[in-house]
Design brief:
Distance between the termini: 27 Å
Oligomer: single chain
Structural class: mainly alpha
Radius of gyration: 16 Å
CATH class of the largest domain: Mainly Alpha
CATH superfamily of the largest domain: Intergrase catalytic core
Shape: globular
Helix content: 40-55%
């Protein structure tokens, strides 16, 4: 990772966070390092910003990224550590300090929009050879939860991770047909 320039490191970090958490682009944009808790092999964010799934009286959304020690190059925690280290100096300006996690890799290094987040994910999908006329940035959400389901993660855990209250939403809109490749 230390060989990557800021742009590919940013794109990799965004994609690994999206794949490991099934977060919407809006939630990725709302991650704030002021509400980051580093604990052992995980990073936990508390998101109090109003999101698509926010309801009155509902507590802040908790987002957790777990370490993947068997492959550091695909570990969202290792990638986040490198990304935070590289962007620390860029976050400070004469007038303020940017605390949202994902910032532009070009000056003035401000927080990015949901549309930019979607464009970044689409560019990673395209670079991976995925047909982006069929698979859109939001398709990552379905791929992430389907992968968890195939791994045997309990549906209740998947619903909590994706912030769904109804299993039918998962099964109807996000659970994909899959082929297991050995």
């Amino acid at each position: 990772m230390d060989q990557l320039s800021l742009k590919p490191l940013t794109l990799k970090t965004v994609m690994l966070c999206a794949l490991s958490s099934a977060l919407r682009e809006q939630t990725l944009c709302a991650l704030d390092i002021k509400f980051l808790n580093k604990s052992g092999n995980s990073f936990r964010f508390s998101v109090s910003e109003s999101l698509k799934t926010s309801r009155p009286g509902k507590s802040a959304r908790k987002v957790e990224f777990l370490s993947l020690p068997e492959d550091n190059s695909l570990c969202p925690v290792a990638t986040l550590i490198e990304y935070l280290s590289r962007t620390a100096g860029l976050r400070k300006s004469a007038s303020s300090e940017e605390t949202l996690l994902f910032i532009s890799f070009v000056k003035p290094h401000k927080a990015e929009s949901t549309a930019t987040m979607a464009r970044w994910i689409k560019s990673v999908l395209s670079a991976a050879g995925i047909d982006t006329s069929v698979f859109k940035p939001h398709s990552v959400r379905g791929a992430a939860v389907t992968h968890k389901y195939v791994q045997g993660v309990p549906v209740a855990d998947i619903l909590r991770m994706a912030d769904w209250s109804n299993e039918n939403t998962f099964r109807k809109y996000y659970l994909r047909d899959y082929n297991i490749v050995d």
